[in-house]
Sequence to fold (251 residues):
Amino acid sequence: MDLTFVDCNCIIGRRADRRPTEPWSVEQLLGDMSYYGIREALVTHAQSRDYDPRTGNMELIRQLANNPMLHPCWAVLPPASQEIPPAKEFVDEMMANGVASAVAYPHTHNFSLSHWSVGSLLTSLQHRRIPLMLPFNQTTWDEVERICRTFPELPCIITDVNYRQLRFLLPLWETLTNLFVDLSWFSVHDGLAFLAEQGHLGQLLFGTHYPVYQPSAAVTMVTYANIPSAQKKQVAGATLSELIRNIRRTL
Fold:
């Protein structure tokens, strides 16, 4: 069975915490995507996390130019800090550059995800249906619940979540249809089959956290999951592809 993998969680550039031999270039990413059968990927730049979001975002656009397999993911900040343009202008700029998602690092960049800090930005992202990605170590489940409930049409993707968070996720998923998690660290025997039985498979996204992890674990988890082929295709890429297609590029 051929699966079309679409990765929601990749990074390029030299990370501050990288390993000495770690791949970091676009060419290396594309080579590994080809090897593992990954067709497309959402990509952030290490400078956006470790140095300055604005600099990293612009460098990302430069490096991904004319490559339809790689979709830019821009890091965000509170517009009031004046390090990015006002919310609507910034989101319009994202659209003009073909950006497919946003990512927030509130702990690393020292800002709040409260409404008084990023409310205008989240409103503008929701207006365009641009997914917001949040690494799990940058937020809390109470914060995630508040964002998802306040902005019900904003897809919120929590990355790097492990199976021990299921006792938080399962009750949240009972009412939050805009909450998604990636598989980059979700290593659990028959985990996908369990979530399929619970009716939550549509809120899982294929993700590798490349190059922090090798794609092999996430690819294997989906390929050999004890679920029907149609559900494997859903997790491998169909759900994420639909989220990208749903972005409102023209209004």
